[in-house]
Amino acid sequence: MGLVTTPVPSVVPFSGTFRPSRGPGSGRPATWPLPLARLAPAGRSGALVYCLTALDDSGRIRDRSLLAALGWAPGTPVEVCEREGLIVVARGPAGVFRVTGQGFVVLPAAVRHWCGLRPGDRVLVVADPGAGWMVVHPPAALEAMVSAVHTAVWGGEPR
Fold first, then answer.
1. What pLDDT, in 10s, does the model give residues 103-125?
2. 53 close to 117: Cβ distance less than 8 angstroms
3. Which InterPro entries match (predicted)?
4. How many domains does the chain fold into?
């Protein structure tokens, strides 16, 4: 068998008024336009870096790619605090904490406790290399954000 070289027609979004290709009683169903998902408006600047990662038993953020994006080397002083259920980690000369010798950020036990984080919990971490900070979004904060979006989209809980 040889390769099929017939091009596949592209899908073009429907614009205009739908008119069935076959009328009632023709024995054939009407042709409907393909359903297309609505895309969010473009506007992402690309300035932020995202990572979904897990915490280990010591409170370390396992993914080090964000630290590389931030330019934080082992020994970099950082400030860690909780703000409205989120954990903010910022580079600062007055920082009590430091990036470990292995290149990890460790979230202090008190902050993990305030945010209800346990070993193995997956968190969304967002870094802004230009500003020199990252924000850790615990599962409870993610659930609240997603619920708010679902409420806005569906006017209530998802169906």
1. 999 999 999 998 899 999 999 99
2. no
3. SpoVT-AbrB_sf
4. 1
